[in-house]
Design a protein that fits this description.
Layout lengths: L24 E6 L2 E7 H7 L12 E4 L1 E6 L10 H6 L4 H6 L4 H10 L2 H17 L2 E7 L6 H17 L3 E9 L10 H18 L5 E5 L7 H13 L3 E6 L7 H8 L3 E4 L5 H10 L2 E4 L2 H6 L7 H6 L4 E3 L12 H10 L5 H8 L1 H6 L17 E4 L6 H4 L6 E6 L2 E5 L2 E2 L1
Parallel strand pairs: 4-5, 5-6, 6-7, 7-8, 8-9, 9-10, 10-11
Antiparallel strand pairs: 1-2, 3-12, 12-13, 13-14, 14-15
The structure holds zinc ion.
The site of zinc ion has 4 residues, from loops.
């Protein structure tokens, strides 16, 4: 069983190793919340319960928090796999009208009902593999109406439950076909028209930008993130994924809660992130699926005291619904220890989406979002590849997965 006392600030450095494991532990839940956690001997004498779940010999831990997904998309891009294998990069596929732009066509064509249907099933898949909270971005609509449609899908799925969703506006995900060669004009439209409308409708908590060379460069990214911030949308940013553009520095400058990817982050960028408390949300499945042999330098970030969180980067280019694979890649490709990876997948990811007061650890007062694993030790999450080790999932105290199946 794991508990963790980092609700006030994310775990950094050696703190990421400390899961606060209680051997032979128990959790008392009432009204969807954890009311006590500790030794079984103490809890069993202090509490009675109408329902008891026996987890003898198994790991009990907080639900995974996926801090970075592009959940809302229609269609699929399986044909790009061969292009990638033959060596075409992300930007080349994009420049040829594939990649994001083909998903934009499919997502625009889909109705809100279509997207709800698709994403409901996707959320169930995530939940079956242990994800209980999902940061979900728009960004395949790229018209105001289609971005609103995507954000409304996220809001509705959160209201329906059982998974909890946190909406991020990512109108600046790519330059839509109508604005090719007119990036500045498109950025102005986002700043002046779209962000105020989305904020007025309370459709997003965060504003994100795909800050990258030849997409939204620093000046446009800054304008968009600051426009969002003025309207109450907290900045987060796709930073320095393909090129050391200065996305991490910008994240620190605008007060972003998280800078994501960071494969090519500069030394200055890391220093500024640390000084400003920006969380590094790392997405090891992204370089894997792009067939790039470069991964973020998680060891350096951890040793420099930067909090590291993890995300799946679920998208049509990186279709990953089993968060346990993210933990495995964090171990094998980022050289994070299993304990660090679990901290990145729970409490630090909760900080990355500003929900650490509610989720991410097993502590009294938090939502009872709890996993029971078919494993005797948490290290199995990093060690046993490709299996679904999740037996039971509770969200808000309700059993939503039992025996590995939807309850
Ligand atoms: Zn992304």
């Amino acid at each position: 069983m794991t508990a963790k006392g980092h609700s006030e600030r994310p775990a950094v450095g050696p703190e990421m190793e400390d899961l606060g494991i209680v051997e032979d532990g128990a959790i008392a839940v009432s009204d969807g919340k954890i009311i006590a956690a500790g030794k079984s001997s103490e809890l069993l004498s202090n509490y009675t319960a109408a329902e008891r779940i026996d987890a003898t010999g198994r790991v009990v831990m907080p639900g995974f928090v996926d801090a970075h997904t592009h959940l809302v998309f229609a269609g699929s891009r399986e044909r790009e796999l061969e292009l990638k294998i033959k060596g075409a990069g992300y930007m080349k596929i994009l420049q040829e009208g594939g990649g994001i732009l083909s998903t934009v066509r499919d997502t625009r064509r889909a109705t809100k009902e279509d997207l709800l249907h698709i994403c409901r099933e996707r959320c169930n898949n995530l939940m079956l593999h242990g994800t209980t909270t999902i940061e979900a971005k728009s960004g395949y609509g790229l018209t105001l109406d289609d971005e609103i449609k995507s954000l409304e899908v996220i809001m509705q799925l959160d209201q329906e439950g059982p998974t909890n969703l946190v909406p991020t506006f990512l109108g600046a995900h790519a330059i839509p076909p109508e604005y090719q060669g007119k990036t500045g004009e498109y950025a102005t439209l986002i700043c002046e028209k779209w962000i105020p409308e989305i904020a007025k409708r309370k459709l997003a908590s965060f504003c994100d930008v795909f800050c990258e060379k030849d997409v939204f460069e620093i000046e446009d990214s800054r304008r968009i993130l600051l426009a969002g911030k003025r309207q109450g949308l907290v900045p987060r940013i796709h930073a320095d994924e393909f090129y050391p553009l200065g996305g991490a520095e910008l994240a620190a400058e605008v007060g972003a809660v998280s800078a994501d990817h960071l494969l090519h982050v500069s030394t200055a960028g890391l220093t500024r992130m640390r000084a400003s408390g920006v969380i590094a949300t790392l997405l090891p499945a992204a370089p894997l699926t792009l067939m790039v042999d470069k991964y973020a330098d998680a060891r350096r970030m951890i040793s420099e005291g930067i909090p590291v969180a993890l995300g799946s980067d679920l998208s049509p280019s990186c279709w990953l619904e089993n968060f346990q694979l993210v933990i495995q890649l964090a171990c094998y490709k980022l050289r994070m220890t299993p304990a660090e990876a679990l901290t990145g997948a729970t409490i630090n990811a909760a900080h990355s989406i500003m929900k650490a007061n509610e989720i991410g650890s097993i502590e009294a007062g938090k939502k009872a979002n709890i996993l029971i694993l078919n494993a005797p030790d948490f290290r199995f999450l990093g060690y046993r590849l490709g299996m679904n080790l999740v037996d039971t999932v509770l969200i808000d105290g309700k059993t939503v997965v039992r025996g590995g199946h939807l309850a």
